[in-house]
Amino acid sequence: MIDDVLKELKDNCDKALDALRRDLSKVRTGRANPSILDRIRVDYYGVLTPIAQMATVSTPDPRLLMIKPWEKGQGQAIDRAIRDSDLGLNPQVDGDLIRIPIPALTEERRREMVKLTKRSGEDAKVAIRKLRRESLQLLDELAAEGEVGQDDADRGAKKVEDVIAEWVKKVDGLVADREKDIMEV
Question: Which is the most buried residue in 58, 68, 131, 155, by most CB within 10 A?
Fold first, then answer.
């Protein structure tokens, strides 16, 4: 029973870490990365659609994103959506292609990106702490129902704390790595 609780806790913590990785991949650094456009939605015949579902996004060099819409008439809509976003990008429409030069981040913008990164890390830690609380409650319920002994439940609680400490360190490591990428000039 206790092993099942620990396995479920680890699986859920792994999901929280994956969500953090996805969030951090969307935070802009000084290099071109197609995933920074993931949260931008374009009005595509009345439906808000991600750019990746209506165009090919590529990175021909580290400071340039290129978007090639699958339909010729969608270039202006994509351009407008990117300009309206909070990314601070200035796309250049050239016929069928949209080129987005990625400017070097200013010091102020880098600090804003680091704050976003830290906020995402804190959100992941909150999710992991919630999982800890749920696991400890489950162990208490198992002990109260007599399915496991109190000593076993206490040992299980200690293992839960160890697992949580390990996952919090992983979150801190991911956030620190991303901060280093952002602050790199």
Answer: 131
